[in-house]
């Protein structure tokens, strides 16, 4: 069971001029150069929640969520039901779905929220514009994993966490993802910064290529979403995601030395 914590308040805005501007042209060139030797469709959005600075690449791409959809499923559940009133088994499913990326737990919660119709209702309330799930039962099929989305929508979802009644629970679970799944967004964190994240990996049966995804919050300030598809291996996709996150976050700030 996840203990409660103080509600996370969205960082207060300060004028963008107080922070070094993001050189979007330079970052776009750097991302394109990085992707030259890393084929596949790629999209990344990073937003500084304190200043509103934002960088987007491949914003038009609509790609599979893979297990990143599990954050959306949990948020849809908590939009309608209070965490402390959920049955113990349901809370356990939520915990292992996020922390261990357990697919059968996701299946059960997918049913509880009303499958794709329930997710669609929640996403309209969350302000998502391009996220769509396929209809059907998900018994051992994990059809929630082929929900399609954009990096912008995933950042919008992260920004809804402070407005969600039990959003602190979601964030806490994302911080407690098991060590072997802490890749991705965490690559952009400076030493000592807390990261809340959820990753996804999905091998397409049709072509044996991988969708690798990662979303999360760095220091409760930077909302990051990276979606990739058509990676030759999961390892190659993870490496691409991490290099992208590192490079783009370098355009927002410099980590302190020492």
Account of the protein in words:
The chain is of the alpha+beta class and 258 residues long. It has a single domain (23-250), classed as Beta-lactamase. Helices cover 36% and strands 17% of the residues. The chain has a five-stranded antiparallel sheet, with helices on both faces. A two-stranded antiparallel ribbon has the order 3-4. Helix 1 (24-35) runs antiparallel to helix 8 (234-250). Residues 1-17 have low confidence and may be disordered.
The domain tally reads: 1
Under the CATH scheme, which class? Alpha Beta
Q: Label the structural class.
A: alpha+beta
Low-pLDDT regions: 1-17
CATH T-level topology: Beta-lactamase
Q: Based on the coordinates given, report the CATH architecture.
A: 3-Layer(aba) Sandwich
Main beta-sheet strand count, sense and barrel state: 5 strands, antiparallel
Q: First CA to last CA: what distance? A: 37 Å
Please trace the helix and strand order, writing H or E for each element: HEEEHHHHEHHEEEH
What does the average pLDDT come to? 92
Q: Order of strands across the widest beta sheet?
A: 2-1-7-6-5
Count of alpha/pi helices: 8
Annotated CATH homologous superfamily: DD-peptidase/beta-lactamase superfamily
Shape label: globular
Strand content: 15-25%
Radius of gyration: 17 Å
Helix percent band: 25-40%
Total strand count, please?
A: 7
Can I get a quick summary?
With 258 residues, the protein is α+β, with helices and mostly antiparallel strands. 36% of the residues lie in helices and 17% in strands.
């Amino acid at each position: 069971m996840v203990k409660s914590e103080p509600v996370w308040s969205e960082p207060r805005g300060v004028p963008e001029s107080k922070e070094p501007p993001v050189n979007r042209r330079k970052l776009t060139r750097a991302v394109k150069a990085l992707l030259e030797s890393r084929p596949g469709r790629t999209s990344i959005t990073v937003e500084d929640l304190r200043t509103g600075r934002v960088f987007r690449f491949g914003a038009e791409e609509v790609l599979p969520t893979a297990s990143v959809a599990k954050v959306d499923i949990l948020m849809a559940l908590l939009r309608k039901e209070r965490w402390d009133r959920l049955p113990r088994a349901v809370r356990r499913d939520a915990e292992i779905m996020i922390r261990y990326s357990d697919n059968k737990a996701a299946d059960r919660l997918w049913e509880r929220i009303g499958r794709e119709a329930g997710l669609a209702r929640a996403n309209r309330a969350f302000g998502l514009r391009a996220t769509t799930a396929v209809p059907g039962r998900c018994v051992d099929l994990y059809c929630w994993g082929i929900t399609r989305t954009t990096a912008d929508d995933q950042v919008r979802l992260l920004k809804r966490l402070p407005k969600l009644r039990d959003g602190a629970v979601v964030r806490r679970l994302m911080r407690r993802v098991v060590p072997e799944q802490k890749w991705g967004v965490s690559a952009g964190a400076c030493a000592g910064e807390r990261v809340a994240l959820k990753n996804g990996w999905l091998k397409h049966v049709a072509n044996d290529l991988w969708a690798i995804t990662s979303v999360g919050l760095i220091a409760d300030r930077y909302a990051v979403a990276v979606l990739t598809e058509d990676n030759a291996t999961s390892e190659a996709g993870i490496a691409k995601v991490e290099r992208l996150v590192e490079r783009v976050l370098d355009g927002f700030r410099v980590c302190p030395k020492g």
